[in-house]
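Protocol step 4 of 5: obtain the predicted structure for the target chain.
Materials: sequence only (see below). No template structures provided, no constraints applied. The aim of this step is simply to have a reference model before the mutagenesis design in step 5. Sequence pasted as it appears in the construct record:
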Amino acid sequence: MTSSNDWDFKGWGTRANLKCSDGRTIMENAFADDDGKTVPLVWGHQHDDPKNVLGHALLKNTKGGVRVTAVFNDTESGRNAKALVRNGDVSSLSIYANKLKQSGGNVLHGAIREVSLVLAGANPGAFIDNVNLAHAYSDEYDDGEAYIYTGEPIELFIEHAKDEKDEKEEESEVAQSGKERTVGDVLETFNEEQKKVLYALIGAAIEEKGSNKEEDDGEVKHNVFDGDDYSNSLAHEERVAEAMNVIIGDAKRFGSMKESYLQHADDFGITNLEYLFPDFENLDKTPQWIKRPDDWVSVVMNGIHHTPFSRIRSLFADITEDEARAKGYIKGNLKKEEVFSLLKRETTPTTVYKKQKFHRDDIVDITTIEVINWVKTEMRMMLNEELARAYLVGDGRLSSSDDKINELNIRPIWTDDDLFTIKYKVNIAAGATESEKAKAMIRAAVKSRKDYRGSGNPVLFTTDDWLTDMLLLEDTTGRIIYDSEAKVATAMRVSKIVTVPVMENLTRTVTEGGSSKTRHLMGIIVNLADYNVGADKGGAIGMFDDFDIDYNMQKYLIETRCSGALTKPYSAIALEYEST
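Step 4 output (structure tokens):
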């Protein structure tokens, strides 16, 4: 069991009343029955091997959620995990709970079975993963399970010297976590040097203010930073605390601690505020991009076939008709010649580019980042995304736009000729649910493969919404059918599934029987080795720069001149459904 002063780290197992990224909220006291329970501490919820058991964790239900107090065992894996935590390499907790009861989006009750150390995820906030709630909005259902992450860092035990009194004080502090912080709470956010400077500033300022009360101008003659050892001012802590109460008490009213200091500077003779409030520093050497997920771009750019010439001609002989079949012979009859059609398609190149310019004065003045390299990276990144989009579905611009990438030069797989891309209509009934649509999509992917003539095992390109709907499919007992993307891919007879954000909400208009209908794209099945991108010497992607001496402008251009098209008949399948 874990005693009050014998632990390795603490943290939040769950946080109450905090809305998770999937819309669910863990309610207050949802895990009250687990108060005082000790559960295994494991690595990444891998409880199928005793080596993954790192120790144990004591659960405490408090105001605000469930606190975890954990101790590592003396096994090799336990010692290794302890070193990772102390070094800051691992700093996140997760719990596994079952017997979950939910009403609407609120989780009301559950049983915690284990606590896990996990690598910090990309989502910094609270979230629930791998939820199994068959009747997600039923008050009666109480057999769900989930992995729950708070996204908050764990707290290390630095010195094994806490007594029972300290433990009670800490519990009291946790219970009051929703209240305003005290002077001591705020001071604990300062490092040691800032604390000493703070005491020096206020202590010396108060003393100096008292000795100059009778001066008409009220000017403080002494500057604490003019060669004094500021540690001597620590004797004035009581007077400092009095001033701090005033300053921190007004921080909320003035909007920040710094503004409160500025407002009370004359009262306490405080100067040199920059020692306590230094300038902001960039966390990153360059600004972070706000962009669409682009993992799919590298899949497309690395998957296509390249040729060192851009003018492509494809020749085909159609031998599927009866006239091309071999024939039986009867003695004395005339032997007939084979008849088949020759088909030809030619594709020529077009230019795709991205251009940028900067005033040279701005380039010289920007000293904190390598702005040119940063912008060139952005230009190449966006050019690749535009090309990948054009190869798959077209650039989406109107045909009348001057910026349109000509679809006769770079032919989109989705809308290519029926000889190359099979347009398979997915039958979806009116009023179908998301689950019914997902099932229909899987069925269509399997049935359409009989006409596929492309290379090897193709890839499915689709949207995250369609993939999510397929992953959420349940059987008649409420169990998840496909618990991984790999299992969905196997069911659809594809090698893998790649989600493409730019494929969302794409439609095209078709004419059947004299009436126009709208087709919605669900996914594209293709092996990109059958899509050829050709560029002549000098037409491959190149970066160019130029200086306009008249306007003092530095200009940059990245461009390519290439063609793109499928080169095998029936080498792609476009899964679509019609609006009802």
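Step 4 remarks: Confidence is low (pLDDT under 50) at residues 130-142, 158-179, 218-236. The chain has three domains: 9-175, 183-275, 351-578.
Proceed to step 5.
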